[in-house]
Amino acid sequence: MDRRKKYTKMVLKEGLMELLKNKPISNITIKEICEEADINRSTFYSHYSSQYDLLNAIEEEFIEDMVSTLNHYNFSKEEEALMMTEKILEYIAKKPDVCQMLLSENSDIHFQKKGMMITQEYIFKNWLSNNQFDTETFEYINIFVVSGSIYVIKNWVENGMDKTPREMAEIINNFINKGLSNIR
């Protein structure tokens, strides 16, 4: 991709992220994105079909980068969840503005669903095969764990990441693995 196209896509993404700080995606118009990015509408439409298409591109880029980061590691079963969680949090710490925008109420729920799918693929695939849960029960467990983790991560980012990625990974994994009864 040439430099002009990269620049155009970058300013459109930045423009949408700026607008999402103040209003939901459903209330953002193409005109507003173009004004924020200082790009004309025809240029916008040469790259994206709608504000949702642009948001999806931001989500996909974030997820692809995160998955690429995770693919650089070979995790043993014993340490897989903790190390994977730590690597995810390290990645998020490098891009807190994007993460905060994607997890905000102004974004859409698709990003969280994609996060659940990634977690299921990377963290739970070995765990499920070692436990005697049916698929439906596994789905409930996955939703509970990932939804809780997403909101803990969202709170961590919104509060200025006051703990290290390792500390947060330990908090999340201790709760997942030991539950409330062992947290004192």
UniProtKB/TrEMBL annotation:
Pfam families reported for this sequence: TetR_C_8 (PF14278), TetR_N (PF00440)
Q: Name one GO molecular function term.
A: DNA binding
Q: Which PANTHER family match?
A: ACREF/ENVCD OPERON REPRESSOR-RELATED, TETR-FAMILY TRANSCRIPTIONAL REGULATOR
The species is: Mesobacillus boroniphilus JCM 21738
The alphabetized UniProt keywords are: DNA-binding, Repressor
Query: Which residues does the UniProt record annotate as the domain HTH tetR-type?
Result: 6-66
Protein's name in the database: Transcriptional regulator
Which residues mediate DNA binding here? 29-48
